[in-house]
Structures are given as C-alpha cells and as structure tokens.
TrEMBL record:
The chain crosses the membrane at residues 12-32. Keywords: Membrane, Transmembrane, Transmembrane helix. The keyword Membrane applies. It comes from the Eukaryota. InterPro entries: DUF8077 (IPR058390). Residues 39-123 form the DUF8077 domain. This is Ephrin RBD domain-containing protein. It comes from Angiostrongylus cantonensis (Rat lungworm).
Length: 123
C-alpha cells in the first residue's frame, strides 16, 4: 500500500499561497498611515472605500461615475423614509457626495476614497 499524501496537499498549499498573496497586501495597507486630524474629526459620519482602477485613467473620469452612482444608491435607500428618519422622500445628486480633505488618493494600485453625504437644502 502506497500513501501519496504530498499530491493531495499540493492544491491546498497553492490555494493558501494564492489567498495569502492576494489578501496580505490589503491587510498591510489598512494601517499604512496615521489618520489626519480632519479624518479623525469626521470618522463617525464618513465612509470609505478602496477601488482598483486603470492606472492610465484620470482621476475625474473615475470619480464622476462614482458620485453619480452613489447618489442613486443613497436616493434609493432614503426613499424608505424610516431608514433616513426623514418626513419626505429626497433626491440626492452627485453634488451631495463630498470627499474628505486629502481624499481621494492613489495608494498601492488602488484609489482610496473617503466621502460623506450632505442632505439637500430642502430637508
């Protein structure tokens, strides 16, 4: 009887190495820099996202679709008046998505976007 355990564990080892190779840089870049004072002040009511992008793409070409899309998401979410604790339904536009000072910035092949949503004036 021949036991060939090495062959059985090779795919698992390759999978582990692949996961480690893809996830470790993300884990290491989370705490790459100390937060600024402005980031700490806005921490409770801002949100952030990291997005992979084409290196040759200019920043405005990436951010304007992000603002348009996220304003649609917020509008859809706030159509449930109890979710946003408001009395009437609101429509958010791209101008209501504001970026935290110093953001967006390019880091390690991704764009790090920190943003907050401003309510329209008629609320």
């Amino acid at each position: 009887m021949v036991f060939c355990t090495r062959v059985l564990y090779l795919p698992r080892i390759y999978l582990f190495i692949a996961i480690l190779y893809t996830k470790l840089p993300c884990l290491l870049t989370i705490f790459a820099e100390d937060p600024s004072v402005h980031e700490l002040d806005m921490f409770e009511w801002s949100s952030g996202i990291r997005v992979a992008y084409c290196i040759d793409a200019p920043l405005p070409d990436i951010l304007s679709p992000f603002r348009r899309t996220f304003s649609k998401v917020v509008t859809k979410y706030c159509h449930n008046t109890t979710a946003c604790n408001i009395k009437k339904q609101l429509v958010f536009g791209p101008e209501h998505i504001m970026f935290v000072e110093g953001f967006p910035r390019r880091e390690y092949g991704t764009i790090h976007i920190k943003f907050y949503v401003v309510f329209p004036h008629n609320t």
